[in-house]
Amino acid sequence: MDLYQELIIEHAKRPHRAGLRAPFDAEVHHVNPTCGDEVTLRVARDGDVLSDISYDSLGCSISVASGSMLADLLTGENLDTARTTFAAVRSMLTSKGADPGDEEVIGDAIALAGVAKYPARVKCALLSWMALADALAKTGVNLSEESHV
Fold first, then answer.
1. In sequence order, which residues have a C-beta less than 8 Å from that of residue 21 and are 6 or more positions away?
2. Which of 4, 149, 11, 7 is nearest to 83 (CA)?
3. Are 55 and 67 in contact (CB under 8 A)?
4. Is the peptide bond before 23 cis (omega within 30 degrees of 0)?
5. What is the pLDDT at residue 1?
6. pLDDT value, residue 146
7. Per the confidence metrics, is the pTM higher than 0.85?
8. Cis before 33? omega within 30
9. DSSP class of residue 26?
């Protein structure tokens, strides 16, 4: 088994930062209608810093692992880092394999690069990331913008 598969399995079996915590500034619930994966995600901000990202994820290993990786990568980070990381992960996952990802930017989420070749699984890997974007939008932040709101 290669390192990437091991990373996905490790994050899926023992998700990092799992469980819904309070206080939080926004909460969203997303469902992947294709397979039934679900995530409830909460975000807490302290100014431009994501002070906490908590979640409850039900679904396949890719979906659970992706949520775990997201929480690891972005908890405690500023919004600029969140925007850069979000864009890099989304680009890698939607590239159909053309964008191999940048481990310096996306850390363990590089393990999800192979998912890009399987369109049916891309939504599983993106579920938590899209939930984060929606949760932050509820706090007035657009992850696709260059400047802060």
1. 42, 44, 52, 54
2. 149
3. yes
4. yes
5. 45
6. 56
7. yes
8. no
9. E
Choose among 4, 7, 50, 48: nearest CA to 26. 50
Residue 58: count of CB within 10 angstroms of its CB? 12
Domain residue limits, the chain: 3-138
**C-alpha distances out from residue 44 to 19, 75, 109, Å:** 14, 9, 22
Which backbone phi and psi does 130 adopt, to 5 degrees?
Answer: -70, -35
Q: Which residue carries 């007035």 as its tokens? A: 140
Q: Which fold has domain 3-138?
A: Sufe protein. Chain: A (3.90.1010)
Q: Whole-number mean pLDDT of the chain? A: 94
How much is the average pLDDT of 107-129? 95
Nearest to 4 by CA among 69, 76, 55: 69
Given the DSSP bridges, would you call strands 49-58 and 26-31 parallel, antiparallel or unpaired?
A: unpaired
